[in-house]
Amino acid sequence: MSSTAPQDTGHHRLWSVDEHLADILAAVRPLEPIELQLLDAQGCVLVEDVTVPVALPPFDNSSMDGYAVRTADVQGASEEFPAVLAVIGDVAAGAGELPTVGPGQAARIMTGAPLPPGAEAVVPVEWTDGGEGGGAASGMAPASSAPEGAGGEVRVHRSAEARAHVRSRGSDVQAGDLALAAGTVLGPPQIALLAAIGRGTVRVRPRPRVVVLSTGSELVQPGEALTPGTIYDSNSFALAAAARDAGAIAYRVGAVADDADTLRATIEDQLIRADLLVTTGGVSVGAYDVVKEALTSVAGGEDDVDGGGIDFRKLAMQPGKPQGFGAIGPDHTPLLALPGNPVSSYVSFELFVRPAIRTLRGLPQTEIVRPSVRAALKADKAIGSPAGRRQFLRGAYDAESGTVSPVGGSGSHLIAALAHADSLIVVPEDVTSVEPGADLEVVLLG
User: pLDDT band at 134, cuts 50/70/90?
Assistant: First the structure.
């Protein structure tokens, strides 16, 4: 664990938000690359440049259903004086053996089918009588009506330029072109391109596996009945969803009772499937703050060869003052211990856990933290903020007017307001009152 101060001093001073985040990012390394099947690689970051092995499309092909013709044969053709051509066969998509189109001849051709030798252009079926001997056709006769549909004559009512309705070989990408650069996040269009150039697997950094544990004997799982003194466990759902949103594979471990031995055993069980552990609750100074009790002994302090140490700190922020961070277990798996109040834990996730997840994914530095903008405070009266604390208020940001409005009160348990917020309003440490209209930093959560 990297930290800017020895472990024991963490209890005696306030750490800034920036110091705590810097410590976390210094200790978290991108995951080692692995080879994955295309669909398993969705959402992962590419670690190699991918070049195109074959041109796309790999051959000249038709962009329309119609007839492959020689341009000289249809020159000057009109509805009054159609060009009458002998139909020598069908060319379907995927066709291997191709007929050669000679003078006075045409081949029925389907969209995506290779342009047969001798042909220079494709006339859409709507420019012909479709071989039916009538007026303009609206579509092709089905292949099942062959040989009649693929033989006989076709009347062409319009002339065609050379290469009309032909997609040229390599018009999408050429062999040797760079298809995707290292660092690209693989979304559906990128997966499609990889498949189109014949790549079945790709080398990426895997999505981090994040285990979320909520602690508290008072917590009940949603769907069960509440008894006196109990509340529903929302934190583990909020943080698992947030981890997934940040690009991780999230495993939620429902409420662990306030017992240090149980928590220690649960954490040790979970290490096998975790690239990052996130706990919520039990990090303050109360008699039942078991995360602190369990992790202090499981990590065994700074010198412990097995763990690495968890540092519990007070941060100069509101909400989210108590925080813990360190490494645990034989693989020095990073662990972030967040406060238990729902809003505190969510704000802490956004500021500290999300950047850690995105670092594990190997995303570029510019995409590690949420984007922020400046906006004018839209409020009825001045907003107070504690001296020496960086306050994060839930906000609703209006991009059009460049304003941000506070949502809900400042209490760290007001989860209803969180559901209506799309941003965090940042009040700096040295500001104790913010007037309406003041220019503030706004972290965008969308």
Answer: low
What is the rounded CA–CA span in Å between residue 401 and residue 375? 9
Residue 184 · residue 190 · CB < 8 Å = yes
Q: Are strands 66-69 and 121-124 parallel, antiparallel or unpaired?
A: antiparallel
Q: Which of 258-272, 400-414, 423-437 has maximum average pLDDT?
A: 423-437
Task: Give, to the nearest 10 degrees, the angle between helix 290-299 and helix 260-270.
Answer: 60
Question: CA separation (Å) from 398 to 244, 371, 394, 423?
Answer: 26, 15, 13, 10
Q: 339: cis peptide before it, omega within 30°?
A: no
Mention every residue, 6+ apart, whose C-beta is less than 8 A from residue 260.
Answer: 290, 293, 294, 297
List of residues 6+ apart from 54 with CB closer than 8 A: 175, 197, 198
How would DSSP label each residue in 227-244?
-TT-EE--HHHHHHHHHH
Which element (helix H / strand E) includes 292?
A: helix 290-299
* CB 297, CB 306: distance < 8 Å: no
Dump pLDDT digits (tens) for 137-151.
767 766 665 544 456
| Largest CA-CA distance found in the chain, in angstroms, rounded | 97
> Would you call 372 exposed, middle or buried from its count of C-beta atoms within 10 A (0-12, 13-18, 19+)?
middle
Ranges of H-type helices in 75-209: 188-196
- Distance, in Å, from the CA atom of 50 to the CA atom of 56, rounded to the nearest integer, reads 14
For residue 100, what are the β-bridge partners?
Answer: none
**pLDDT tens across 153-193, in order?**
999 999 999 999 999 998 888 889 999 999 999 999 999 99
- Measured between alpha carbons, how far is 428 from 434 in angstroms, rounded to an integer? 10
